[in-house]
Amino acid sequence: MSAERKREVREANRRRYEELRAAGQEGTSRGLPAASALDAAPIAPQAVISREEVAPGWYATVRLRRAEALRIVDDTGRSSVSMIGWREEESSERVNCADTVKVQWSAALTKGRVILSDMGRVFMSLVEDSSGAHDLLVGGSTPASTLEAFGARSRNSHENFIAAAAKVGLGLRDIPPCVSFFAPVSVDAKGAFAWDAKRKRPGDFVDLRAEMNVIVVLSNCAHPLDPARPAASGPVTLIRHRAPAAAPDDPCRTLSPEIVRAFAFTDRLYA
After folding, report:
1. What angle do CA 214, 217, 219 make, to 5 degrees?
2. Span 159-173, average pLDDT
3. Cα–Cα distance between 10 and 12 in angstroms, integer?
4. Torsions phi, psi of 125, nearest 5?
5. The domain containing residue 219 runs over which residues?
6. Looking at the domain assignment, is residue 1 inside a domain?
7. Total structural domains in the chain?
8. Is residue 64 part of a domain?
């Protein structure tokens, strides 16, 4: 192939990329539903399967069946909750933050978005979300970050994930990068991470609908970028509940052509 032809191919590929990016970032964002109000979407008592409080520094392991949902509540507005997870029937399939960002052309995880697995299926959908301040980029706390935050060795998400994985027969190599909820991380004009504490409120919540049978681990530890010293944290509440069946026009299912295909791939698994 001549140099001129190579240049033409590169330019054609770039134009196509820019078209897809514009559709994904601009058109898709306009189709997202509004954030949930703090008093929105009450859970009917008969729909509740279980409820537990996770103290600062601790973690919980939750199994969800397809179409069940998990509500995570930041009770005090001082917590961040980091999550990893696996498909129950095949633990080699797990949460994939990179694909979640890539396929949706955005690192902003909000109501109407989904969390993808590393097999291109939809792991969970954000069906309610009053916060919109979640992190797919930085990751959870480590022994080093908590030492800096507290001035002493403290519980952290990395070690919580290892302990939780061991209890379901998994190990260090099975732990993927995590999603962190109630973590208002953004990227400034210079490409540096920034923390916006004004986006945290007591009572903020997110509802995650399981689109497959999953095992998730949720760690309630201070986020590495939270500037509070010593680190601020408080209890969080987890409510496992039965979710309404997703309609064909469910916003999470119809957000973009890529997500429509991901749901079709997921549905075939359970057909």
Report:
1. 155
2. 97
3. 5
4. -115, 140
5. 31-40+47-269
6. no
7. 1
8. yes
